[in-house]
Amino acid sequence: MKRPKYFYGYNIVASGFGIQAVGIGIFVAFGVFFKPLLADFGWSRATLSGAQSLALLIAGFLGILVGRLNDRFGPRIVMTVAGFFFGLGLLLMSGLNNVWQLYLFYGVVVGIGLSSIDIIPLSTIARWFVRRRGMMTGVAKVGTGTGQFVIPLVASILIAAYGWRNSYVIIGAVAMVLLISIGQLLRRDPAGKGLLPDGDRESQTESSKPAETGFYLHEALRTRQFWTICLAYLATMFCLLIIMVHIVPHATDIGISSTTAAGILSAIGGISMAGRFVTGIAIDRIGNRRSMIICFVLLILALLWLQLAKELWMLSLFAVVYGFAHGGLFTVISPIVAEYFGLRMHGALFGIVFFSSMVGGAAGPVIAGHIFDTTQSYSLAFWICTAVAAIALGLILFLRQIKNT
User: Fold this and answer.
1) Domain spanning 9-188+215-397 has what CATH number?
2) Phi/psi at 399 (nearest 5 deg)?
3) Which of 153, 156, 151, 138 is nearest to 324 (CA)?
4) CA-to-CA distance for 129 and 144, rounded, in angstroms?
5) In this structure, how many other beta carbons lie within 10 angstroms of the beta carbon of residue 4?
């Protein structure tokens, strides 16, 4: 088999970049809509946070099913359905008037679409690349950082110019069109196009051959390592969503303007691009576990600094360190599942890890919102976040390789 002049796997990575940028960028921009919704409806911060938490729970629960569907039927159909629901939920948000609508439109409908945004592109990339899996996952995850950098700023501008209702119409329509269109470029694996992973020839490394080996689902579920990874990503998403949902209102609470606060959220996304790309390269050189340890250490340092940050320059420094760390952590997730458990059931196993992370992501914003409603401060929430990240670091320090017996 000759090496192709152009390897289609790069299209898969580009698709993953686009899906991540649109889907996750819009999802984290919910924090920009936070204060306008509070002003119009007078709901508590816990109530608003609960809608995003429900979306994460729905996404996590469906993620297990999505992973199985991707393993069996491929990514295009699944991504098409997901893109429709994601855009539809945002469009429906433009007509929001009641709490039950908030939870239905955003919590359920957007949550259905969100279930595929991570699993489909990252699981597909894992099949197309072996030797360069870390780097290519990192490139795709740069899309997440790009979306987190651009979309909150765009949302802030749209809200200022047209109001939050019209902004949801614009963002929802664009999201639906882009996610469905980009999804059509996805292909399940290189074998379907007569190719090998990494664009290799048959004479190249055995590790690049398309045979899907590894753990069956029931085997992986019986290992301590699998549940360690699940808990680590539960902790990661717990911290991420507390910051993504509450950093903008926290910044405005300490006297920073809404536009500048949105810029801090965007800065986290922008810096995370570097974290994702650098970590992707590091994965291929020093391994997944060591890369995770470095990222968790940086995450803990950033969260400790946040307790002291009362001025714009201090929050900006937080955004730099935190953005790099969280970008790196989300780059490792798919490669570490592939490293420890192989590709045989990668989609399903990734789906379960994704569900675990969504449980943490769902709990974090609600807990932080309740703490603020009770104490009028995020301080305790940020300390809890720091402690959870420290526990996750301890788990990864004791993570060891396993053999498929």
Assistant:
1) 1.20.1250.20
2) -75, 130
3) 138
4) 20
5) 16
214 forms bridges with which residues in the sheet? 342
| Contact of 122 with 12, CB cutoff 8 Å | no
pLDDT at 201 over 60: yes
- The two tokens of residue 300 are 């803990």
Tell me how crowded residue 404 is: count the other CB atoms within 10 A of its CB: 14
Domain extents for the chain?
A: 9-188+215-397
Residue 401: pLDDT band (50, 70, 90) is confident
φ, ψ of residue 342 in degrees (nearest 5): 75, -170
Burial profile 295-333: b = 16 or more Cβ within 10 angstroms, e = fewer: bbebbbbbbeebeebeebeebebbbbbbbbbbbbbbbbb
Q: Measured between alpha carbons, how far is 175 from 116 in angstroms, rounded to an integer?
A: 14
Q: What angle do CA 391, 21, 58 make, to 5 degrees?
A: 60
Which is nearest to 272 in space by CA: 4, 20, 47? 20
Question: Rounded CA gap, 94 and 106, in Å?
Answer: 11
Which structure tokens are listed for 396?
Answer: 């990864």
pLDDT, tens digit (0-9, with 9 covering 90-100), for 110-129? 999 999 998 899 889 988 98
Query: Which of the four pLDDT bands, split at 50, 70 and 90, describes residue 250?
Result: very high
With residues binned 3-state (H G I as helix, E B as strand, rest as coil), the percentages for the chain, rounded to 5, are 80, 0, 20
